[in-house]
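Morning!

This is the sequence you dropped in the shared folder:
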Amino acid sequence: MQNRSNTSWAKTIFATGAFAGCLILAAPGAHAATACQRRLARADHRLHDAARRHGWDSREAQHARIQLHEAREYCWAHSHRWWDEDAQRWHTERDWDEHDHDRR
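The structure's back. Tokens below.
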């Protein structure tokens, strides 16, 4: 009876450890994805805000376009995908249009 109890206890500990290990390994990728999503969403909103306040051809909007481009490049380099804030979806191809935010 004692041996069966120890085996059951060992299986529980092993399963718990395996599950925790999976969570730890998955967390950095999930964190990077949410960080990229937030980074791209902020850059996109800053561009729209700059365009609304100063016009699409303004120096401020151009600066925001550069920041959006840099955010896309960063996410692509780190996770090989990028968040499209306007379409609310991830892209797994480097298929963004460099001029998609030139005018609205």
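Headline: The mean pLDDT is 82.

More detail when I'm at my desk.
O.
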